[in-house]
Design goal:
The complex is a heterodimer of chains A (about 375) and B (about 160). Chain A is α+β, with helices and mostly antiparallel strands and about 375 residues long. Chain A is built from five helices and 19 strands. In chain A, the strands form six sheets. A five-stranded antiparallel beta sheet of chain A has the order 1-7-6-5-4, covered by helices on one side. In chain A, strands 10-11-12-13 form a four-stranded antiparallel beta sheet, with helices on one face. A four-stranded antiparallel beta sheet of chain A has the order 16-17-18-19. Chain A is globular and about 65 Å long. Chain B is mainly α. Chain B is built from eight helices and no strands. About 20% of the residues of chain B have low confidence. The chains are: A alpha+beta (about 375), B mainly alpha (about 160). Chains A and B meet through helix 1, helix 2 and strand 13 of A and helix 1, helix 2, helix 3, helix 5 and helix 6 of B.
């Protein structure tokens, strides 16, 4: 090999660049993925896919497995996709007891396990061919109930999305599977699984809140997200006032300096976050039609002015339906930028008082253009 | 939302480079866009947990690198509308013919060799880092590296 060749330079120059995609597109897709993953059944019985993650140290039954503990797996792991019902799975020797309301299949360190008596109507394997995991989608019945399941597992653990078709979240099994596959499946955590202090300000573990030095808790809102172990916080530090929502028992967090948020109050910001975490589009004040027309979508919202297709291409306008609008809501004036990405509309809401002195739609467009380099206004 | 703002900042700053990595791995701008979107979506979901500096880019790169690139190179996946994204040439002294030849040669390498070349010799990862990223041994990295560079060098020689 010629050691004088500067391979990094040669390769760097061997091809060009593609077209950048508006950042808002990736944020919108990310929102949608979060909604899918965080979807839970609320107390009112809202229809949703339930996503459960398991590490093998906490395998089904809650106890670590010993190496010689037999775990039965489905005898035909390569069953071909078919829409015709197959016979009931044979009786396995289960190491872990099935609980009454468990879905009729689960992933174990040894593979897929079908609950005795369950009937598999359709099965698809290897849903994520680009990943080093095993996976299967099942259309399966058990004791008169129908389930759609997507399971993925590897040496470290498993995840399962389960849905009851009658809940109507998806019209077909195929649509459910496609949505799950599009979501990318199980996400591996980083090597350092300790999330540490959210924004360097607080930790929340086992219901115990601890603050960093010189951080003051101004306000706490317990359990704002239905079905999640969550905590809303207003924190005061040298950096300013931080609004924070801790979810998943403290494993995940969203936060914003109040000055960086378009919302005027913590309650508005928290309502937006809770809506997002609960599987809703967020606290969107408007709907956007295909022709770029904006209409009020929340009680008390009045649309004062609007313009379709503003020149804010870095947010995705131009390629998708879009609009800016001036609103009145709760006695205040608000600007919104709405972009109709194929994955769902993205609505950025900015109180007039936080819009850099903007008073008109032109001035708001100029303000948002200036903010584009910083990732927009959130 | 700081989560969104920080994610947006990262994407705004790094998407061009990350898309080029995806393109170097698969040789198709549409597939590169797909790869990048998949990786960035997973990054968004995992964002609260990926805090250590530099971890975001490594996370995205790892997802793209570990994807089964050649699975997506089957002809049926390449039948897309003809509205191709432009392949804008990078600044530099290498002429167009040579750029095409070298990149074509890179794409002609077996998948694992191509990944090793991209990680080790374009992005500058060490042998150990490359081995870790691809979940292969350091010896395999060296072997792929040697064979891949030999093939590329032959192409460069013909065009000089």
């Amino acid at each position: 090999m010629d050691t004088e060749i500067d391979w990094a330079r040669e390769l760097e120059q061997s091809f060009g660049t593609g077209d950048d995609v508006p950042v808002g597109h990736y944020v919108a897709v990310g929102h949608q993925a979060v909604r899918r993953r965080r979807a839970t059944v609320a107390a009112a019985g809202v229809a949703a896919a339930i996503v459960v993650g398991t590490t093998w140290a906490l395998a089904p039954g809650g106890a670590p497995r010993s190496d010689d503990a037999p775990v039965a797996t489905e005898p035909n792991p390569t069953a071909s996709p078919t829409s015709s019902p197959t016979s009931a799975a044979p009786e396995p020797v289960a190491t872990f007891p099935w609980r009454k309301n468990d879905p009729p299949a689960r992933a174990t360190p040894d593979g897929l396990e079908i609950r005795p008596g369950a009937v598999v109507h359709e099965r698809r394997d290897d849903l994520y061919p680009g990943k080093d995991t095993e996976s299967a989608a099942l259309d399966i019945s058990y004791k008169g109930g129908r389930w759609w399941l997507v399971l993925e597992w590897d040496g470290g653990g498993s995840s399962m999305s389960s849905l009851r078709p009658e809940d109507g979240l998806f019209d077909t099994f195929d649509a459910f599977v496609r949505a799950e596959v599009a979501n990318g499946g199980m996400t591996s955590g980083p090597a350092d699984d300790d999330p540490g202090m959210a924004d360097g300000l607080v930790t929340w573990r086992g219901g115990k809140l601890e603050t960093a030095p010189r951080v003051t808790v101004v306000r706490q809102v317990p359990d704002p997200v239905p079905g999640d172990d969550s905590l809303g916080l207003v924190l005061q530090s040298a950096e300013g006032t931080t609004w924070m929502l801790l979810t998943q028992g403290g494993d995940a967090a969203s936060w914003s300096l109040d000055t960086d948020s378009g919302w005027l109050t913590f309650d508005q910001w928290l309502a937006d976050q809770v809506a997002l975490q609960s599987g809703n589009p967020g606290l969107d004040l408007v709907d956007l039609a295909e022709d770029g027309t904006v209409t009020a979508s929340a009680p008390g919202v009045v649309v004062l002015d609007q313009r379709a297709d503003p020149d804010l291409e870095r947010y995705g306008t131009g390629k998708h339906p879009s609009a800016v609008a001036l609103l009145e809501w709760q006695g205040e004036r608000w600007f919104v930028l709405a972009v109709g990405f194929p994955e769902g509309a993205s609505v950025t809401t900015v109180a007039e008082a936080k819009a850099g002195g903007a008073d008109t739609l032109d001035e708001f467009v100029a303000f948002m253009a200036d903010r584009a380099d910083q990732g927009g206004m959130r | 939302m700081k989560h969104d703002a920080a994610f947006s900042d990262f994407v705004a700053a790094r998407q061009t480079h990350l898309r080029r990595i995806a393109y170097a791995l698969c040789g198709d701008w549409h597939r590169a866009d797909d790869l990048l979107q998949t990786a960035l979506t997973k990054l968004y979901v995992a964002w609260p947990r990926i805090r250590h500096e530099g971890g975001e880019e490594a996370y995205v790169r790892q997802i793209m690198v570990r994807a089964n690139i050649d699975e997506s190179r089957r002809p049926w996946r390449r039948e897309r509308p003809s509205n191709q994204l432009p392949d804008l040439p990078a600044d530099g002294g290498t002429d167009v013919e040579e750029r095409s030849a070298l990149f074509a040669a890179l794409q002609a390498l077996p998948e694992q060799q191509r990944k090793v070349i991209v990680l080790r010799h374009w992005l500058g990862l060490s042998v150990r880092e490359t081995a870790t990223e691809l979940k292969i041994s350091e010896g395999t990295v060296k072997s792929h590296s040697s064979r891949g560079l030999a093939a590329l060098e032959a192409v460069l020689s013909r065009h000089r």
